[in-house]
């Protein structure tokens, strides 16, 4: 385990010990940890989707709106056709289109990824509101095998299926980024684009794959969230932007690209996922969480930047 992973692990242990000392009735009992197993996987799926993009030196600011629009396609299709399978296919197809559109703007039109995806963020969010007329969609009739596969509970401990999905996605992403030759393309693209092209790496294709992957992960998160709450709503996904970036940066991934950590991102997601309930359990107002998230992003970026400088 490298130094960054040791540091982030110690930070998680310290935070858990702090919360447990202030609120032992909550953090020394298993119930809250089982509830985390249904909430943290959403953050983790989004983080693991975004991580390879950041390693490649790009950002996707549109993923909260992609979540909402993907969830809308899923919910609307199901309510119209009563087919959850068709709803799943069409929603994931939307994720592919959304990711490809972002990639097209960045790779072909040469728009900065932050600016391009802020634009598509507004477009997808507005589209979801217009198509739904600003109304939520119920999924009360969405039952069956597919729902059990995504948000069912695994006995005997009633572990939410989304936790297993998050673990599977983490393992697959680790294998592709750090144990497969495609990972070299991602790392070289983020570290030095010119050098990557000289090495024969297809930078454009790599970016297309990563943006499309993020579109699919965002849509998957939207589907799971809709099924978990038996409802889709037009503001779905709002609030995840800060959580996801905070989790990734606290996990040790540099904002400049070229490096990143699956383990660090997992621990970062857990820290961010437990933060709000911990702050509330300590007796503070939940509004303080945004201050804490913002501080975490700034401190993490500065700390790891200095850490890399000292290592070099």
| Relative helix content | over 70%
- Could you give the count of β-strands? 4
Number of helices: 14
The portion of residues forming beta strands comes to under 5%
Question: Structural class from helices and strands?
Answer: mainly alpha
Q: What is the residue-mean pLDDT, rounded to a whole number? A: 91
Distance between the termini: 19 Å
Largest sheet: 2 strands, antiparallel
List the secondary-structure elements in sequence, H or E: HHHHHHEHEEHHHHEHHH
Strand order of the largest sheet: 1-4
Shape: globular
Report low-confidence residues grouped into runs of 5 or more. Answer: none
Task: Describe this protein's structure.
With about 300 residues, this protein is mostly helical. Helix content is about 75%, strand content about 5%. It has 14 helices and four strands. The strands form two sheets. It has a two-stranded antiparallel sheet. The chain has a two-stranded antiparallel sheet with strand order 2-3. A hairpin with a 4-residue loop joins β2 and β3 (about 160). α3 packs parallel to α8 (about 160-180), α3 (about 30-55) packs across α13 (about 260-280) and α5 runs antiparallel to α11 (about 205-230). The protein is globular, with a radius of gyration of 19 Å. The protein starts with a helix and ends with a helix.
